[in-house]
Amino acid sequence: MCTQFKGWIPNVIGRLSFSLSGISSFPSRVVYKSHLRSGGRNFAGFQKRNLSDTTIPLISRCTYLKSMFDRYVLQKEGDFYFFCLMERLAEEDEMRGSIAVFDRAHRKVVKKWLREKMETFDADAPWPALREHFSLVFQRYSILTLNFTLKRTGEVSIGVENVKNEFYATKNGEDIDHILASQGYFFLRDLFHTHKFHSPTTDTIIDVYRDREDWKREVNYALARKVIALRRQNTVRSIRKAIGVLSYLEAFRKHLLDEQQRKDVYFAIPTTRKSLEAALPIVEIKEENSVRKKLESFAGYSQKVLALLFLYFGLFRDGVSPSEDWLWAKAVISAVQNDLLISLAILGFVSLVIQIMANISIPEREDFQASLVRLSLAFQEKKASAVMFVVGMTISLLCIIGIGILFQKITSVPV
User: What are the backbone dihedrals phi and psi of residue 127, each rounded to the nearest 5 degrees, phi first?
Assistant: First the structure.
């Protein structure tokens, strides 16, 4: 039995542009081919997506490093290839199609095969012929198949069709169908949606919901909660984001809710917008005079002065000699004058410390949570949390040892 889910791809005007599908480059470039024909439009494209939920400082910032770390340290795989085949019928004015997901083990065969098939992509072929055109690779190599219908308003229906049994065997107690449908939704959203008011890496404001009568209520509440949460952060950046998300909420209520539904899930959009717009200049003034702003300015001036001092020490070494009472300063200046590597290391380290001290902050909680909510299809986890902790502690220890060696070398330079 095909499990159905519902969701909404955000758009302000209430009319998605199907002709612009595939131009997104997040999280990687989409290789696609699209044809406009007399009866509508056909689209075929695939994209590499890393779905790993590994969260390690520095490593997780780079998709390639995260993939290597997952593969060789955590013994799990996070790289998957999503292929989308869809058509639009002119009389229906909606996109319908299929999504097939392939793992890394078959990436070379699948990519080569898909490229060859897309080269022979017949623009005027009927939908059954197109499905037959790609069905062989779907059946032989895919680990998951989803079907979907996408309306102009952004309303999307996703059905979980063919799933390998290993998914159901490895995550006991979790709603695997929902997780898989969510990944299909994220893929479609990135094909059709531009992330204007939020980071694409943490955009989990809206999810998919089981096809019940209350799914629109859930989407409405998700957007409303995000607006309120951003407003409470009380920063210029968050308030501007809140105004953007509020526009999505207004569009969703206008194009997908009827009059009775809007009354049932009432939200004072005009009042909220006026409140946000009134708060914005006040928060801007506060931030301009805030301690953080002054610290950032101090950091900039400090780094300039520091660079000039090191330049002075290096160029005028004969005339610079601190008092004998300042032995540590004399040792540092001697090291700077006689060893370029040490001088660069000190300059970089002190500049880094100044910058860190001027930008100490707690990351936005919802961004951190959202990065963990993007659940992975890489289910072969082996003590991942313990490994991440050990790696983090190792990096910290190496930094401390490096700083110690640096200062030991500085203090050992003869004066």
Answer: -55, -45
